[in-house]
Amino acid sequence: MYGGFGAVAAMAPAASGAYFVGYESGKRAFGESASASALAGMWAQALAGVVYTPMDVVKERLQTQGALAETARAGTYRNWTHAIRTIAREEGVRGLFRGYWAQNFVWWPWSAAYFMIYDGARGAAAASTASGETSPTMSSACATLAASTATVMTHPLDLAKTRLQTLRFESASSASMRSVLARVVEREGVRGLFAGVNARVAAVAPGSAISFYVYETLKQSGW
């Protein structure tokens, strides 16, 4: 149940920090419109992806290695640090960044949709209050709505990205987002593109709610 947790615990704080730095700097650079929110989200993802991609590669291989038919031939990773060393040795540093652009291709539309919905919902919530401000609790509710909607919208892309990152050796050389999606539809039908969507919403939405509750609390306290 906690496969890959060590990689997440060690690397997610830096990735989240890069994400919020990108979001704040993007808002200052692009403005406050809906399109500016989308651009700020994409910029945040581009920065955070430098840390998120190696984390995802390691986490997802640890989570799936027990179920992959290739495992017996490829060997298993003992833990996340062993996985990093093994991937770097056998596949080079590029192996740790497998799927960086695929990850951006997934999370750019996610972040664009997320921040358009989040900022719009917060604006509507603020307009409904006498003070014209949103509490951290209201921001958390807006984050839940935005994360759930954006996650469902982009799930097929995430499914393809995950399968691409967990491929090993020669099976990964000719694979692409497009070929993976086509293979899923061929073998599993259109419904296969949304395999695991409920689990992904259950993982992403609470995380966003917690993150933005803390984020808005710290901002309002002057940090």
Layout of SSEs?
Elements lengths: L4 H26 L3 H31 L6 H4 L5 H12 L1 H4 L3 H28 L8 H30 L4 H4 L3 H12 L8 H24 L3
Helix pairs in contact: 1-2, 2-6, 6-7, 7-9, 7-10
Mean pLDDT: 88
* Portion of residues within helices: over 70%
Indicate the overall shape. Answer: globular
Number of domain units: 1
Beginning-to-end CA distance, first to last residue: 35 Å
Unreliable stretches: none
Number of helices: 10
> Mind telling me the CATH superfamily name?
Mitochondrial carrier domain
Strand and helix order? HHHHHHHHHH
Level-1 CATH class name: Mainly Alpha
Give the C-alpha Rg: 19 Å
CATH domain fold name = Mitochondrial carrier fold
| Share of residues in strands | under 5%
Describe the largest sheet: none
Per CATH, which architecture?
Answer: Alpha/alpha barrel
Q: Structural class of the helices, strands and pairings?
A: mainly alpha
Number of strands: 0
What does this structure look like?
The protein is mainly α and 223 residues long. It has a single domain, classed as Alpha/alpha barrel (Mitochondrial carrier fold), CATH 1.50.40. Helix content is 78%, strand content 0%. The chain is built from 10 helices and no strands. Helix 1 runs antiparallel to helix 2 and helix 7 crosses helix 10. It is globular, with a radius of gyration of 19 Å. The two termini are 35 Å apart. The mean pLDDT is 88.
